[in-house]
Backbone:
């Protein structure tokens, strides 16, 4: 099988061949696949009928030259005399794949002959917990999932009610509930984690198997969308149950009990009643906002350390401005454009865009009463009027007194309380021009907010550390060079973006266990991931380690 990585097709050819609705949605149809096949044959000097079993692995846009924009494809296919073709071609963007491809790298899971006496327990039903549970269930281990929040249908109702009324359920909200925090985001699946094992590809294929759009398999920056992701998560949950797993919603993990350094049981509560369960295998996939659980675990003796994260604001611009800057006059014929921006300030602070949501919304993502945090989300179509992104500043343990492992949590809470006070419980909003002058905004400009949740005009500089405000202002002025209009005075700022990642890492060894054997810290909340895909990959990795350990004992 040949893998070819630099197949280039000018956008004008796409426009002249592919239906407009497919181009706008970013979907590769038969017409585009024919163009790719033709380009592969031409590039390798072979006939098209020699190309068999062709799959498009990746498509990205090269928009550096507006008059010569092109799509770049990565494909795999079979043909005759592959080694001879590769040698004759002579360029390093073509390689011969021997044995299994990345598509087939993951072995088929067959149920184990021997089941554990105690079922493995998973705390948290975000991507890490969900994919760990699926992996274990497919192996016949019948995991039990504890999720403090609600199932997706009830969770959607509670979140909508919170946005409408401001009445917060601290156990079921944008952070907690089936699917985790990612369910109310953009469903972004791109990751910087290298994937030699094929786990990342497995995550994408699993999402498609359970209802996600198939284009996530080849888009350079795949996403599912908040409106679709919840249903996909529910389908995965139903499969886990079909395989013998169990899901307990509105059930809160309280503590782990161990003897001689080995886990023996866990304590949890449901409907206000505490219960105990024998347990020797526990996956902690709590997410980055389960501060009470992390605190209890730390105080009980689980080893943890403070880690860097980032804080900042959400900024909104017209999506048309962002797309026109990226694609020029043909912007309205293409999917909504995104951006990725980075800058180092004169004080050596890192400023960067994070979780950019084309055509999306800023949302109230609070999970604790008296504290306020924001996030961004987009539906699958990404057809909202505004683009939004977090513009955040790196925060290190030195900034918040990191000798205490929980100091980062205290730092987050301090500024979330400031945000709640400044907005009187509503999202504080400010124009960038007023942000630079450190004054409360009194009105909006041409940019109208796209916000889920109640908001009020305020001074966002008061809800973030002074160094962060100064760095963000400097960074946005620099980003103006990349995207004209980025520093427009009526760009809308909202704060605080404080949940970029966990401020804590739960220490684990080479066997992926904590200092208490049988406890497996996992995913973003444990400090080992930074998004849906990387968290899901870590969930699979931990589950595979558990399976290996069980098999070695039998």
Residues:
């Amino acid at each position: 099988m040949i893998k070819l990585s630099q197949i280039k097709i000018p956008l004008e050819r796409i426009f002249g061949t592919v239906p407009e609705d497919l181009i706008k949605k970013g979907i590769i149809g038969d017409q585009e696949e024919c163009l790719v096949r033709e380009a592969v044959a031409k590039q390798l000097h072979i006939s098209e009928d020699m190309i068999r079993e062709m799959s498009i692995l990746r498509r990205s846009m090269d928009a550096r030259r507006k008059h010569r924009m092109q799509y770049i494809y990565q494909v795999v296919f079979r043909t005759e005399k592959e080694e001879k073709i590769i040698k004759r071609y002579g360029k390093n963007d073509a390689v011969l794949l021997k044995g299994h491809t990345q598509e087939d790298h993951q072995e088929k899971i067959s149920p184990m002959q021997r089941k554990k006496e105690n079922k493995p327990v998973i705390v948290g039903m975000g991507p890490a917990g969900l994919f760990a549970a699926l992996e274990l269930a497919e192996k016949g281990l019948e995991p039990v999932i504890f999720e403090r929040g609600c199932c997706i249908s009830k969770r959607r109702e509670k979140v909508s009610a919170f946005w409408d009324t401001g009445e917060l359920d601290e156990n079921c909200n944008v952070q907690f509930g089936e699917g985790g925090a990612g369910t109310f985001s953009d469903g972004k699946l791109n990751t910087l984690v290298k994937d030699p094992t094929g786990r990342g590809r497995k995550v994408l294929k699993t999402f498609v198997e359970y209802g996600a759009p198939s284009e996530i398999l080849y888009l350079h920056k795949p996403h599912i969308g908040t409106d679709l992701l919840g249903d996909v998560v529910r389908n995965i949950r139903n499969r886990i149950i079909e395989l013998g797993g169990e899901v307990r919603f509105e059930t809160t993990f309280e503590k782990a009990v161990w003897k001689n350094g080995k886990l023996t049981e866990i304590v949890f509560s449901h409907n206000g009643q505490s219960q105990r369960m024998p347990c020797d295998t526990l996956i902690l996939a709590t997410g980055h906002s389960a501060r009470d659980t992390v605190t209890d675990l730390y105080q009980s003796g689980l080893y943890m350390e403070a880690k860097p994260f980032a804080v900042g604001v959400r900024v909104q611009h017209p999506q048309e401005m962002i797309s026109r800057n990226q694609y020029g006059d043909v912007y309205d014929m293409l999917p909504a454009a995104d951006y990725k921006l980075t800058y180092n300030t004169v004080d050596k602070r890192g400023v960067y865009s994070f979780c950019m949501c084309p055509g999306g919304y800023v949302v109230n993502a609070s999970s604790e009463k008296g504290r306020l945090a924001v996030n961004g989300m987009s539906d699958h179509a990404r057809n909202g009027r505004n683009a939004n992104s977090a513009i955040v500043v790196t925060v290190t343990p030195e900034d918040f007194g990191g000798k205490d492992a929980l100091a980062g949590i205290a730092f987050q809470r301090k500024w979330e309380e400031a945000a709640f006070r400044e907005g009187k419980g509503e999202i504080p909003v400010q124009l960038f021009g007023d942000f630079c002058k450190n004054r409360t905004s009194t009105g909006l400009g041409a940019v109208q907010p796209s916000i889920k949740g109640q908001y009020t005009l305020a001074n966002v500089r008061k809800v973030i550390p002074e160094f962060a405000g100064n760095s963000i202002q400097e960074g946005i002025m620099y980003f103006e060079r990349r995207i004209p209009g980025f520093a427009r005075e009526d760009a809308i700022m909202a704060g605080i973006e404080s949940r970029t990642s966990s401020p804590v890492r739960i220490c684990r060894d080479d066997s992926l266990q904590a200092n208490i054997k049988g406890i497996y810290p996992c995913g973003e909340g444990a400090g080992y991931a930074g998004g849906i895909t990387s968290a899901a990959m870590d969930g699979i990795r931990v589950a595979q380690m558990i399976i290996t350990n069980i098999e070695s004992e039998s």
